[in-house]
Design a protein that fits this description.
Elements: E1 9-16, E2 22-30, E3 33-39, E4 50-53, E5 58-62, E6 64-66, H1 88-92, H2 95-115, H3 117-130, H4 140-160, E7 164-167, E8 185-186, H5 190-193, E9 200-204, E10 208-210, E11 232-234, H6 236-246, E12 252-259, H7 274-288, E13 301-305, H8 314-322, E14 326-329, H9 331-338, H10 344-349, E15 354-356, H11 368-381, H12 388-394, H13 397-402, E16 419-423, H14 431-437, E17 443-448, E18 451-456, H15 457-463, E19 469-470, E20 482-484, H16 494-513, H17 529-548
Parallel strand pairs: 1-4, 1-5, 6-7, 7-8, 9-12, 12-13, 13-14, 14-15
Antiparallel strand pairs: 1-2, 2-3, 5-16, 10-11, 16-17, 17-18, 18-20, 19-20
Helix pairs in contact: 2-16, 3-4, 4-16, 11-17
Length: 549
């Protein structure tokens, strides 16, 4: 459903380059691609072009890329973890998590199917009229596509509101079907990445797991257990990846895999998680059995979290760098769940390609831009000399490189026309200072494939001849000033969809959890006070850790 604007787009104003510097440029876009970038404000003799002439306090950034996001959880409530865990398998088996999040998700999945007919009946009636069919002839799979559409648009909206234009496969990782996107690009659709339709980007939750016949203790009392001797079993996804590498990477153009998510021993000195450490050792052992030693370097492998790797070992760093293996850093989620995270400065200094990822709403950031701002605080508090330009690269150029050099993450001719326009606090403020200090209320617009899909209502009224829908006023003051342009062919009503989600969530929270206040997070960080309080509390925790270290 990703579509480009039917008319050329001309943007004139301050533009950020690959070093994070800003200068006045004119960008010409057509058919979803950047076709020209010129110095200064250059009049374009295209009477059919849509012109965005930016103010001095506005700046164009390349659209952000998020390679670690479980978008189906984007709208979920915050989860209050009862412990700091050793690794991800512990909290996944914790009863509180299962009750508050996992069963909540299962309830939503089931209830969308059972209770959404009243919502989608007008849409189905419209489709029946268009196709001259009786309503009864529209099958349940058609209804299910409408339900998935409702969920998909909402989860993508939170990302695009934060300047994200490309994210990891939406809805479910490891799903075989080609899941559509509605507002944004995603790694699950080759055509949106400019790669061959016969290939795909594989997104993997686990390469290995504890077992077989091993029940991971999920009690907070076991959070500090030594996991070194847990039995380990290979997940079918690892075989899938290895077979692709052995066959010259013909099946998978790139792979993004969760690995070694747990305590790193960096901030929790001497408390590295044993099972996490062994996960990477097992991966290296399996990769060593591949006859062609050059194949891995062409696999475009990205490891998500990867906290358990021994970065004090030069051999580990050499292995990552020489094989072009990228790492996705998610400090918010790491710190909330494990009280620990990566030795990020070591990776950067050693030339490892590092990206930032937001993870998920229950214990992560609102969007990857917020993850970047927290990373700025983290580096400053621990006196790590990491520049704002490096952080910007972690959400633009670096993830594009991790995906094998897709044409995203930079504002250059031939690249995807994906941008977001940010209002700085003043014309004198630098673009990078604005990036780390402004919030998502300051996004003037987000552009995907040359089409303005989200932004301030005034822009749509004054400059854009397209339909749009307002974000419901109940989302907060910042959201009330924003609108989204959803392809009219989708027959999508944002307000009704959010009401449906809210009703289901309130019902589960009230009847099952008996916690009526346990409700959906808001779409914008600027409007979400509980989320802001959590991030501020996490900053205090990091400051305390820094003093102890």
């Amino acid at each position: 459903m990703l579509s480009s604007s039917g008319r050329p787009l001309c943007i004139m104003g301050h533009v950020v380059d690959d070093q994070g510097r800003q200068s006045v440029k004119t960008i010409l876009v057509q058919n979803g691609r950047i076709i020209d970038v010129r110095n200064g404000k250059v009049p374009i003799s295209r009477p059919d072009a849509i012109l965005l002439d930016l103010a001095d306090h506005e700046v164009v950034f390349p659209g952000l890329i998020n390679l670690h996001v479980h978008s189906e959880y984007n709208i979920f409530p915050l989860w209050q973890s009862p412990a700091l865990w050793g690794n991800r398998f512990q909290w996944r088996n914790n009863e509180q998590y299962l009750r508050d999040i996992k069963r909540f998700k299962d309830f939503l999945d089931a209830s969308w199917r059972q209770e959404s007919f009243d919502f989608i009946q007008p849409i189905l009636q419209s489709l029946a009229t268009e196709k001259h069919l009786a309503l009864r002839n529209l099958t349940w799979p058609v209804a299910m596509r409408e339900i998935q559409k409702m969920y998909g648009v909402i989860t993508e909206l939170q990302a695009v509101a934060g300047g994200t234009t490309l994210m990891q496969q939406t809805i479910r990782l490891e799903a075989d079907e080609n899941l559509p996107t509605f507002v944004i690009r995603n790694t699950g659709q080759p055509s949106q990445l400019g790669i061959a339709a016969t290939q795909k980007v594989l997104s993997v939750v686990d390469f290995v797991r504890p077992g077989p016949n091993f029940d991971v203790p999920g009690s907070p009392a076991n959070a500090a257990d030594d996991t070194s001797d847990w039995p380990m079993m290979q997940h079918p996804s690892l075989d899938d990846f290895l077979n692709s590498v052995r066959q010259g990477n013909h099946r998978y153009y790139a792979t993004i895999a969760h690995l070694a998510e747990g305590r790193s021993g960096y901030l929790q000195r001497g408390k590295v998680d044993g099972f996490s450490r062994r996960e990477f050792a097992e991966l290296r052992r399996m990769l060593a059995q591949i006859p062609d030693k050059t194949a891995l370097a062409k696999a475009n492998l990205t490891l998500t979290h990867a906290c358990g790797l021994d970065y004090a070992d030069p051999g580990t760093l050499d292995f990552l760098r020489e094989n072009g293996i990228s790492i996705v850093w998610s400090p918010v989620s790491n710190l909330l769940l494990y009280g620990d995270t990566l030795t990020i400065k070591t990776l950067l200094d050693q030339g490892v390609n590092v990206c930032l990822g937001s993870d998920w709403a229950p214990s992560g950031s609102k969007h990857v831009w917020d993850e970047l701002k927290f990373a700025r605080y983290f580096c400053d508090t621990l006196s790590l000399k990491v520049g704002n330009d490096q952080l910007l690269a972690m959400v633009t150029q670096n993830p594009a490189r991790a995906l094998g050099g897709v044409k995203s993450g930079l504002i250059k001719p031939g690249y995807n026309a994906d941008f977001f326009v940010l209002r700085k606090s003043s014309a004198a403020q630098t673009a990078l200072d604005a990036l780390v200090s402004q919030d998502d209320s300051a996004v003037r617009c987000t552009i995907v494939n040359g089409r303005v899909v989200y932004g301030e209502e005034g822009l749509f009224v004054d400059s854009l001849p397209v339909d749009y829908q307002r974000l419901p006023a109940g989302e907060g003051n910042a959201a009330a000033r924003k609108v989204v342009s959803i392809n009219s062919a989708l027959n999508f009503n944002l307000t009704m969809a959010l009401l449906q989600v809210n009703a289901l969530m309130i019902r589960y929270a009230t009847e099952t959890l008996q916690q009526p206040a346990f409700q959906r997070t808001r779409l914008l960080a600027a409007d979400d006070l509980p989320y802001q309080e959590r991030i501020n509390a996490l900053k205090t925790y990091v400051a305390d850790l820094a003093k102890r270290n």
